Each structure stands twice: as structure tokens, then as C-alpha cells.
């Protein structure tokens, strides 16, 4: 199969784990609301999330180390990353039964807004130039790592004090990375249009 490397297989496995994670969280939350929480489901959700988060780094390392970078991987890897974080953010921010400490709604809103802007920008650059090259910035990667750490803390029911500071840092990094991607996209479009 074209583009089906070890790195891509790891990424696809990560995508498959996302609905498994979501189902475990949903059933745990439903049980919590009924007064019969099954802690095994919560730890199953933690396990799915942890494995998916770890493979986020592993598939990238494998792709670089063994020269397995493919166009498919370039599309699937960020898609899997965003899908995992967004799924967890939405479940843990809109949490009516309070099965978990509730994350503030502003975090998924700014994260989703940034990602929509990036996708829109990449699509626009693609239409204009057919070769978008928006490279990930370390601030964007830092935002993703912080978001995953916060989500892991919340899933494990760590005290709020442990993740309060990283929460604000994640929000700031997310906003800054969004601004950086907008500047990169604007420059690319300007270069294509001769502006």
C-alpha cells in the first residue's frame, strides 16, 4: 500500500484509539451521574489517552529516524494529534455530571479556533500555490504538550493546583502559536501573489 510505513501504521492506531478513549470516558461519566462510577473505565480511558499521546512522539521519531516521511503521514499525523486533544478537551470541558474537574470552556474554544484558522489557511495556500509549507513552531508544539499534560492530570483526577499554571501557559502558547501560523500563512500568500 502506497505510503503505508511503520510510522503511518502507528498514526492510524492512534486514530483508532480516539473513539475507544471517548467511549470509555462517556460510559464512566454516565456511571458517575448514576452514582455507580466504574473506575476501571476511567483508567481504561487514561490508558488509551496515554498510549495515543506516546505514539504521537513515537511515530514522528520513527518517520525521521528511518526516513519514513510520506505525504499520507504529513496529513494523518497532525489530524490524529488534533483529534485526540480536541476529543479530550470537549469531553472534559463540557462535563455536566462533574465526573471530572471541569476544564474552562475558553481552552477548547481557543484551541479549536486556532486549528480552524490553520486548516483554513493551509487550504487557502494550497489553492493559491499548491504547496503549503507551514512548518510547526516550537510554541505550537509546547501548547500541544501542555494540553496533553493537563488532560492527563484531569483524567487521573489530580488536584487542580497541579494543573492550574500549565492551563494558563497552554492557553497563552495556543494563542501565540495561532498568531505565528497566521503570519506564516500571510507571508506565503503574499509571496504567491507578489504582494
Strand content: under 5%
As for the number of domains, it is: 2
Distance between the termini: 41 Å
Mean pLDDT: 86
Q: What is the 3D form? A: globular
In N-to-C order, the SSE pattern is HHHHHH
**Low-confidence runs (pLDDT<50, min 5 residues)?**
none
Structure classification: mainly alpha
Give a structural overview.
With 195 residues, the protein is mostly helical. The chain has 2 domains: 1-77; 101-195, no CATH class. Helix content is 79%, strand content 0%. Helix 1 (6-33) runs antiparallel to helix 2 (39-65), helix 2 (39-65) packs antiparallel against helix 3 (71-93) and helix 3 (71-93) runs antiparallel to helix 4 (106-129). The model has no long low-confidence stretch (mean pLDDT 86).
Topology:
Blueprint: H1 6-33, H2 39-65, H3 71-93, H4 106-129, H5 138-155, H6 160-193
Helix pairs in contact: 1-2, 1-3, 2-3, 3-4, 3-5, 4-6, 5-6
Brief account:
With 195 residues, the protein is mainly alpha-helical. Helix content is 79%, strand content 0%.
Amino acid at each position: 500500500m502506497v505510503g503505508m510505513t511503520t510510522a503511518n501504521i502507528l498514526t492510524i492506531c492512534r486514530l483508532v484509539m480516539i473513539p475507544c478513549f471517548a467511549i470509555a470516558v462517556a460510559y464512566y461519566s454516565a456511571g458517575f451521574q448514576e452514582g455507580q462510577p466504574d473506575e476501571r473505565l476511567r483508567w481504561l480511558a487514561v490508558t488509551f489517552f496515554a498510549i495515543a499521546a506516546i505514539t504521537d512522539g513515537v511515530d514522528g521519531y520513527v518517520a525521521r529516524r528511518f526516513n519514513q516521511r510520506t505525504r499520507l503521514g504529513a496529513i494523518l499525523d497532525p489530524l490524529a494529534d488534533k483529534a485526540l486533544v480536541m476529543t479530550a478537551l470537549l469531553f472534559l470541558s463540557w462535563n455536566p455530571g462533574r465526573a471530572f474537574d471541569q476544564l474552562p470552556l475558553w481552552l477548547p474554544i481557543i484551541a479549536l479556533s486556532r486549528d480552524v484558522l490553520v486548516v483554513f489557511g493551509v487550504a487557502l495556500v494550497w489553492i493559491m500555490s499548491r504547496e503549503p509549507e507551514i512548518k510547526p513552531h516550537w510554541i505550537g508544539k509546547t501548547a500541544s504538550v501542555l494540553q496533553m499534560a493537563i488532560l492527563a492530570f484531569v483524567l487521573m483526577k489530580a488536584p487542580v493546583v497541579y494543573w492550574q499554571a500549565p492551563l494558563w501557559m497552554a492557553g497563552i502558547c495556543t494563542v501565540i502559536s495561532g498568531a505565528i501560523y497566521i503570519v506564516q500563512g500571510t507571508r506565503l500568500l503574499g509571496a504567491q501573489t507578489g504582494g
